[in-house]
Amino acid sequence: MLEGIVRDSMTKQATKTLRRDGYLIANIYGKGLENISTAFKNNEFIKFLRNKETIAFDVTVAGTVYKVVVQEYQKCPLTSTLLHVDLMVAQPGVRASYKIPVATTGIAKGIKNKGLLMIHTKRVPVKCTIEDLPENITIDVTDLDTGDNILIRDLTLADSVECFLDTRVPVVGIIKAK
């Protein structure tokens, strides 16, 4: 389980000191909950996120366990190191916004015809409860040929999962290689 510390001071100098010591600045928030300003060891946080198997995961801050989901993060434009992450508490029975990753299976016909597989939308924004949240959206691309796309309207989501994007937005497609 990932462990974090509570940040006492919110000043710019305190934040710089934490980052220099190898900490990642984070905020934990949720509906009806008070915001918690925390910090996690940067390397531990990255290792934990790479090895996690579900969208929601547990973190411990000041002896309290929270089941959280990464909502947003900020990276340094020069070094691509993580600077800040927003973690939303996944409360049971509460409808909230989540971003579900897209995964593809199979080898498309268009790839054999010198095409390239393009994932246009890497994460699909949906609104649902944590109990109904799928781990990923798996798309079979074996029937796609050059110029074909799979749109949002072609995805099969549960009735309780509502997608925000326009139905004409492409998720996956095969483009012709030059």
Automatic annotation (TrEMBL):
Keyword terms: Ribonucleoprotein, Ribosomal protein, RNA-binding, rRNA-binding
Database matches in Gene3D superfamilies: Ribosomal protein L25, beta domain (2.170.120.20), Ribosomal Protein L25, Chain P (2.40.240.10)
A molecular function (GO) term: structural constituent of ribosome
GO biological process annotation, one example: translation
Database matches in CDD domains: Ribosomal_L25_TL5_CTC
Domain of life: Bacteria
Signal sequence annotation: none
Record keyword Hydrolase present: no
Subunit structure: Part of the 50S ribosomal subunit; part of the 5S rRNA/L5/L18/L25 subcomplex. Contacts the 5S rRNA. Binds to the 5S rRNA independently of L5 and L18.
Function: This is one of the proteins that binds to the 5S RNA in the ribosome where it forms part of the central protuberance.
Annotated protein name in UniProt: Large ribosomal subunit protein bL25
Upper lineage: Bacteria, Pseudomonadati, Campylobacterota, Epsilonproteobacteria, Campylobacterales
Gene, per the UniProt record: rplY
